[in-house]
């Protein structure tokens, strides 16, 4: 679910402007999973544009507090959401931790890095939601440390049905600055893509795991 329509449209426009989101229906990208995709999203680029990263920071901070109440801690999912998560925590005057994909193999073997006390209320910040699997692994790592997860806030989601099911099953409320639906509407409006290309992009979102396979 998006925080609000205005933010969703503005965020989509900014991501397109800096090529954080690339749309190429005729020459699809191949994801690490092997899926063929007419879209590629790299929200790490946000950090390289001060005015845009400040916008994302401010929208996160404002809407997190409005939707979840002010948490005790902000947690970022490594590695893509560490930078944005720190910005949000700084804006809200809160402690920050981050979650590795798996525990370290040496030292203290931490998966959650930073100071976290049992029972603290945590909002998790993520850069991108596809199936939600890796994001929810971070949630489980935080819960295993005794955290109370208030919800997750992400920059962008593809809006896959499997992600919605995964978040529901994990009992985690997800809100995003923007999503695939608003992105496509904005992309047509601003002439980044044609209406025919929009149809192709919509078809992909229905069955992304099998799209483009002969």
Question: What can you see in these coordinates?
Answer:
By secondary structure, the chain is an alpha/beta fold. It has one domain (5-206): Rossmann fold. The protein has helices at 5-17, 50-68, 82-92, 133-144, 161-169, 180-189, 195-206; strands at residues 21-23, 29-30, 36-37, 39-41, 73-77, 96-99, 112-113, 121-129, 148-157, 174-179. It has a six-stranded mixed beta sheet with strand order 7-6-5-8-9-10, sandwiched between helices. Strands 1-4 form a two-stranded antiparallel ribbon. Strands 2-3 form a two-stranded antiparallel sheet. The radius of gyration is 17 Å and the shape is globular. The relative contact order is 0.18.
Percent range for helical residues?
Answer: 40-55%
Strand content: 15-25%
The succession of helices and strands, N to C, reads HEEEEHEHEEEHEHEHH
Distance between the termini: 33 Å
Largest sheet: 6 strands, mixed
Q: Class, according to the CATH hierarchy?
A: Alpha Beta
What is the general shape?
globular
Please provide the count of β strands.
10
Query: What average pLDDT do the residues reach?
Result: 94
């Amino acid at each position: 679910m998006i925080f609000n329509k205005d933010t969703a449209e503005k965020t989509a426009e900014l991501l397109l402007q800096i090529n954080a989101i690339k749309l190429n229906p005729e020459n699809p990208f191949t994801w690490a999973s092997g899926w063929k995709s007419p879209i590629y999203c790299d929200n790490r680029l946000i950090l390289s544009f001060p005015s845009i990263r400040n916008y994302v920071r401010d929208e996160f901070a404002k809407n997190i507090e409005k939707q979840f109440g002010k948490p005790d801690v902000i947690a970022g999912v490594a590695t893509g959401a560490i930078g944005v998560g720190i910005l949000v925590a700084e804006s809200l005057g809160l402690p920050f931790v981050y979650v590795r994909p798996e525990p370290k193999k040496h030292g203290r073997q931490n998966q959650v890095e930073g100071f976290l006390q049992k029972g603290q209320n945590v909002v998790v910040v993520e850069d991108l939601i596809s199936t939600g699997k890796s994001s929810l692994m971070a949630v489980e790592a935080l819960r295993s440390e005794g955290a109370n997860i208030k919800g997750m806030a992400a920059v962008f989601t593809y809006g896959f049905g499997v992600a919605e099911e995964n978040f529901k099953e994990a009992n985690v409320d997800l809100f995003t600055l923007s999503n695939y639906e608003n992105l496509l509407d904005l992309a047509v409006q601003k002439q980044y893509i044609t209406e025919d290309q929009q149809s192709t992009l919509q078809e992909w979102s229905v069955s992304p795991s099998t799209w483009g396979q002969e």
